Amino acid sequence: MSTAVAAQAPQLFVMDPLERINPAKDTTSALMQAAQRAGVPLWAASPADLLAREGDGPHGHGGWVRAVPVIAEPWYSAGEPQLLPLTDFGAVWMRKDPPVDEAYLYATHLLELAERQGVRVLNRPAALRAWNEKLSSLRWSQLMAPTLVASRVEALAAFTAEQGEVVLKPLGGRAGQGVVFAAAGTPGLRALLELVTAQETLPVMVQAFLPGVAAGDKRILLVDGEPLGAVNRVPSGGAAGEFRSNLAVGGQPQATELSAAERAICEALAPALRAEGLFFVGIDVIDGRLSEINVTSPTGIREVERLGGIPLADLTLARLLAG
């Protein structure tokens, strides 16, 4: 069950540098502005600002941060950095964009020190490490298109021959980067498979291609397991035949509503998301099939608010403060 966060308690956002944020599109800025509207004092820091040092009191070594106070409306103004214990914050949002590299993983370990001292970290550090955004979907493989994860070219080629048309996804990819369409008759298929697996040293995900992606790939945002908004992302297509729908590669957002099948997917995932401390999650669904479960820094709030008229950031903060 969720734990309420006091409205007056400050919140810390561990994120990319403030000056790099585009507030017109960025979900983190939307959450920060919603927190400010709710009367929450805001602080910001990067993963590099986290540290562990001997703390006062019975807890021994604890988590600390060198953070700056932020006024997020209008976007943005920041004060002078201060060294603070992470226990000063009612909630800490881990909103650093991927890649999930060594620096990211070590940041989750440092944030876990705060969690052990009673601070709510969103999303939970252990879950951020455990839930690879491609592999975690396999917990519900019955909801997915036919899928294989493998390193061996022979296995991947056989699956491609069986399905006819497939999509290859690097397990560490984000925003559609490195996603490749292939077919059984693609010239140089084995060479391509050698390339994406780094000569059979890295596993990749290969899924049956769903032609329904032409109608869009839905990003559904779940807050504490409940779907509160969605946006349909339609591939740009064109002469290049672009099939990827990610907004970062030119996908066009559209207003949408959830189908019965999509709501059933959300209901299937909700107990595990709640149990493992995944408070803010974005799932991707194509043609009624689960594709990915995004937990590191899900996006889409701005598009949902603009196209659907749903105050999603405010609803998210209200859910957090209510517990």
Protein architecture, described:
By secondary structure, this protein is an alpha+beta fold. The chain is built from eight helices and 17 strands. Strands 1, 2, 3, 4, 5, 6, 7 and 8 form an eight-stranded mixed β-sheet that branches. Helix 1 packs across helix 8 (312-322). The longest helix has 16 residues, at 260-275.
Topology of this structure?
Layout: E1 11-14, H1 27-37, E2 42-45, E3 50-54, E4 61-71, E5 77-78, E6 82-85, E7 91-94, H2 102-116, E8 120-122, H3 125-130, E9 147-150, H4 153-163, E10 165-170, E11 180-183, H5 189-196, E12 204-208, E13 217-223, E14 226-234, E15 252-254, H6 260-275, E16 280-286, E17 289-294, H7 301-308, H8 312-322
Parallel strand pairs: 1-2, 1-7, 7-8
Antiparallel strand pairs: 2-4, 3-4, 4-5, 4-6, 9-12, 10-11, 10-12, 13-14, 13-16, 14-15, 16-17
Helix pairs in contact: 1-8, 4-5
What is the rounded distance between the termini? 8 Å
SS-derived structural category: alpha+beta
User: What is the tally of helical segments?
Assistant: 8
On the 0 to 100 scale, the average pLDDT is: 90
Sequence stretches where pLDDT stays below 50 over 5 or more residues = none
The major pleated sheet works out as:
8 strands, mixed
The helix content, as a percent range, equals: 25-40%
The gyration radius over C-alpha positions equals 20 Å
Spell out the helices and strands N to C. Answer: EHEEEEEEHEHEHEEHEEEEHEEHH
Number of strands: 17
Large-scale geometry:
globular
Strand content: 25-35%
Defining key terms:
27% helix; 8 helices; alpha+beta; 8-stranded mixed beta sheet; single chain
